[in-house]
């Protein structure tokens, strides 16, 4: 429905509401706030909602904290706890439960290195269960982790690598982490999306591969993503919107140019900007200058949330003390 590029369900919902002045049919939305962290739960409940959203049926939870780009230790801990709480609601529990955590992305490209960075901080326990011949433990579950790389370096579809590992190790759940794209610079590196519908590796940079979901892997897939990039057309579109808002207090509202800008919808502005940029190859992918530190910080937040959610006997104090 929209040409504006975003991987976030909350932004797709916002775009529809801006254009149609109503909520998307077949989609349920719930909002809450905890310690200045905004939580938006978008649930696509039927086929009509799925078609309008352009996303599979399922739950999409967005955790937003505007201060994440320069977060202190307390804020990082608060976001980890909120994220763990949301994950616990989605993780199925049963005897002999095991999980495979997959870090998608390219460790040589910083904005795409979120997945591998998270994997380096995950508490892996499957080998311990095997070593001590255990199937159950009251404090932890069996967790394995893999960073499969990207097709450009392996020559193998990421889905095929993960499917082979799933068939061999037989986990009950796959958690996949990847970088995403946003329609707004303000959401880059300040937003975490958790979904129950799987993920397309490489979606953040527009390089879509085969889907990782329950249908392709045979087990439930929880996807965790953080927008680390926007494209130039999206950024320019946002800038025009901000300029229009600023002009409202300084310009003569009767001018034809002002009325034209104000009347244009987001998808119309985006199409125009993209059309202007394309002949020059100027529709590039953009990220923030502090992306190195941001990836380090957010990977720690996500790893902490996953570790706490998966292992019943581990809390934030444990992961901060022993896993970093």
Automatic annotation (TrEMBL):
Quaternary organization: Homotetramer.
EC number(s) from the headed UniProt entry: 3.4.24.78
Highest taxon of the lineage: Bacteria
General function of this protein: Initiates the rapid degradation of small, acid-soluble proteins during spore germination.
Post-translational modifications: Autoproteolytically processed. The inactive tetrameric zymogen termed p46 autoprocesses to a smaller form termed p41, which is active only during spore germination.
Similarity comment text for this entry: Belongs to the peptidase A25 family.
Alphabetized Gene3D superfamilies for the sequence: HybD-like
HAMAP family assigned: Germination_prot
Chemical reaction(s) catalysed: Endopeptidase action with P4 Glu or Asp, P1 preferably Glu > Asp, P1' hydrophobic and P2' Ala
Keywords: Hydrolase, Protease, Zymogen
Official protein name in the record: Germination protease
GO molecular function, one term: metalloendopeptidase activity
One GO biological process term: proteolysis
InterPro entries the UniProt entry points to: Pept_HybD-like_dom_sf, Peptidase_A25
Protein's UniProt keywords contain rRNA processing: no
Propeptide residues according to the Swiss-Prot or TrEMBL record: 1-7
Presence of the UniProt keyword Oxidoreductase in the record: no
Taxonomic source organism: Maledivibacter halophilus
Classification via NCBIfam families: GPR
């Amino acid at each position: 429905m929209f040409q504006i590029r975003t991987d976030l369900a909350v932004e797709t919902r916002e775009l529809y509401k801006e254009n149609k002045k109503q909520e998307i049919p077949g989609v349920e939305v719930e909002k809450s706030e905890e310690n200045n962290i905004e939580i938006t739960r978008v649930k696509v409940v039927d086929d009509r909602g799925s078609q309008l959203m352009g996303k599979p049926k399922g739950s999409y939870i967005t955790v937003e904290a505007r201060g994440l780009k320069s977060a202190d230790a307390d804020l990082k801990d608060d976001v980890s706890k909120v994220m763990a709480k949301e994950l616990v609601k989605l993780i199925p529990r049963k005897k002999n439960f095991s999980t495979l955590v997959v870090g998608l992305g390219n460790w040589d490209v910083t904005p795409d290195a979120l997945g591998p960075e998270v994997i380096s901080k995950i508490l892996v326990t499957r080998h311990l269960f095997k070593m001590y011949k255990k199937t159950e433990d009251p404090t932890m579950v069996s967790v394995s982790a893999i960073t499969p790389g990207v097709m450009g370096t392996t020559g193998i579809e990421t889905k095929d690598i993960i499917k082979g590992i799933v068939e061999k190790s037989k986990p009950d759940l796959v958690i996949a982490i990847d970088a995403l794209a946003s329609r707004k610079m303000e959401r880059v590196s300040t937003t975490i999306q958790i979904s129950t519908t799987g993920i397309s590796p490489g979606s953040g940079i527009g390089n879509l591969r085969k889907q990782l979901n329950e249908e392709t892997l045979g087990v439930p897939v929880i996807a965790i993503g953080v927008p680390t990039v926007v494209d130039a057309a999206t950024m320019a579109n946002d800038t025009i919107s901000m300029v229009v808002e600023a002009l409202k207090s300084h310009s003569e509202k009767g001018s034809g140019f002002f009325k034209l800008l104000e009347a244009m919808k987001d998808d119309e502005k985006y199409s125009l900007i993209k059309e202007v940029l394309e002949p020059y190859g100027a529709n590039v992918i953009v990220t923030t200058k502090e992306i190195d530190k941001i990836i380090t910080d957010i990977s720690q937040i996500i790893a902490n949330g996953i570790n706490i959610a998966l292992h019943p006997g581990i809390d934030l104090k444990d992961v901060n003390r022993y896993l970093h």
